[in-house]
Amino acid sequence: MSTTAFLTDSTLCIGCKACEVACKEWNEVSADGFDWSGLSYDNTGALGHSTWRHVKFVEGTPQPGLGGNAGDFMSWEFSSDVCKHCEVAGCLEACPTGSIVRTEFGGVYVQPDICNGCAYCVVSCPFGVIQRNPEDGRAFKCTFCYDRQKVGLEPACAKACPTESIKFGPLEELQLRSQERLKELQSRGMADAQIYNPTHTSVEGLHAFFIVRGDPGQYNLPPNPEVPTAYLKDGWRSAALGAGALLVGSLLAFLTSRGQRRSRR
Amino acid sequence: MSTKSNQRSGALSKSSAEPRQASESRLLQLRREAELHGHVKGIGVQPPGAPFPKASPQSGYYGVPLLKQPQWKWEIPVYFFVGGAAGASSVIGLTANLAGADEKIVRDCRYIAAGGGLLSTALLIADLGRPARFLNMLRVFKHQSPMSVGAWTLAAFGTFSGAAAFAQFVQDRLNIAPVRVMSGMAEGLSALFGMPLSNYTGVLIGATAIPVWNENVKQLPLHFGASGLNSAVSILELLGSDGSRALNLLGLLASAYETYEGMHLESQNKRVLRPLKRGVSGWITRTGGALSGPAPLLLRLLAGSSGSDRSRQLRRMAAIASLAGSLLTRIGWLQAGQASAADWRLPLEIEEAGSERPELPSKRAA
């Protein structure tokens, strides 16, 4: 089985939210209310237990010439966010039950029949993707349409995307295509286009990466995401030190107080 | 789409009491232009004060938090408190036994450890989203997951501390050599797992994506360990061992470390530490710090371990302060995690409004 990936090219996204709908329909994810956020056309808010694809609407200040807009129009970017399926995944490392596994397609998958809802993955995801469903009790996130991939189909969101903003295919091929696409965009004057795929941190790259325009921070993509296992060494070293101090300190305290032994009660 | 714009203008008219002259005339202009040409050129209307948030490198994604808030409920901080005390008391019990100290301390320690182990397990199971599946925790062992290490540690600790307590129960009625050997072995094993149990919770929250926790990953195990020792000593004293010099010494050590930890946190002025100093979480942490650090330190220094009534009274006061402080410390740290996850600027490495965004590494290409 080859390792598959998503390349979400936000320069092609038209903000139709078909991916959000297709994902919910295929995976039978519950609705999450009709709340108006006031944040452009984004009334979804963020990825979560009931949102596995999320289209972001980034309204920027007017920039002359940006994307062919008239000078006084604001810039308006759309980008469909999804679980990044990290090369080294915080949720997978943290999961104490082994419910979260890496599939033969390289995706990170939560086995719903094993998850016991300890919620440790929630605080271990540097992208804030996975969440415990308070009603169901288990944690949920994008499955990379594992069921569809199993039978050779592409994920529902990629299938539904009308502009091929969401591309699905072999990881290496999409990495090459993203480089080509970036060159093309830059040759067309979009100097601010860039690939978001943090290979420089402990996450070591994503299986769902993005082409965005402008600062990735505007799309809530962190510049330096770290897998929490990176902090383990420091933590356990202190814990060992603390445990040793407790044992030795306690022993010394009782040994030095020996004279007082059985003097009372 | 029309529903959406209706909803939006409804929200707008609520927030801005009076329509502005300029925006009203611009609206008329736009309507006329649309009627005449079928399309509109130029920018629309943005009345002052209306909610038109802009995304920018300074505002992130409209200030929507990027990280998810911890979803643990009240059981987890209480578990941190109970587990810490139980783990530390098993170690105190073993060392007291090895040093030939008061039998009462050894006996109390075994019962506290067993009770705490049982209560800890119950609390952890209660916090699960699917409590019936708690045994899945023992399905695999993952050294890279502090939650897995902790579950196994607690399982082993619960078993051995329970065995030690049962052996103690038998030993009190039938004090023969085989029972003493068994109880000693169980006690040793329970202390072996009690050591990590007393402070692994610091690693558990330190090795996460929550900024205020992972910033303190080096201090947290020592901090929580000292807090656990403090509460174990306090429980023993309240159970009547308030004349033991060794326990007062340990209480002094723990509260001295807690005082140092509090000063260490207060002396740093980092944005990431703000939830430990401001807001509800800040005041819980600070109150917890004062009650488990300087307050018992002072009381214990005053008390000494003379065994006089006054000394015992002061030590009991120190013990109560330490217990309250230890519990508040854990609650405060978990609350601080909530506040930290809601701080959208931290993971995006955005400075406070007004200051420039710091230079970021530009090695983002695939």
Brief sketch in words of this structure:
Chain A has 265 residues and is α+β, with helices and mostly antiparallel strands. Helix content of chain A is 27%, strand content 17%. Mean pLDDT of chain A is 91; it is low at 261-265.
**Radius of gyration of chain A over all CA atoms, rounded:** 24 Å
Q: In what range is the share of β-strand residues of chain A?
A: 15-25%
Structure summary, number of beta strands of chain A: 10
Mean pLDDT of chain B: 88
The low-pLDDT segments of chain B are: 1-17, 354-366
Specify the oligomeric state: heterodimer
Sheet with most strands of chain A: 4 strands, mixed
Termini separation of chain B: 38 Å
- What is the global morphology of chain B? elongated
N to C succession of SSEs of chain B = HHHHHHHHHHHHH
Sheet with the most strands: spatial strand order of chain A: 8-1-10-9
Instruction: Give a count of the beta strands of chain B, DSSP E runs of length 2 or more.
Output: 0
Alpha-beta content class of chain B:
mainly alpha
- Indicate the mean pLDDT of chain A: 91
- Secondary-structure element order of chain A, as H and E? EHEEHEEHEEHHEHEEH
* Share of residues in strands of chain B: under 5%
Low-confidence stretches of chain A: 261-265
| Number of H/I helices of chain B | 13
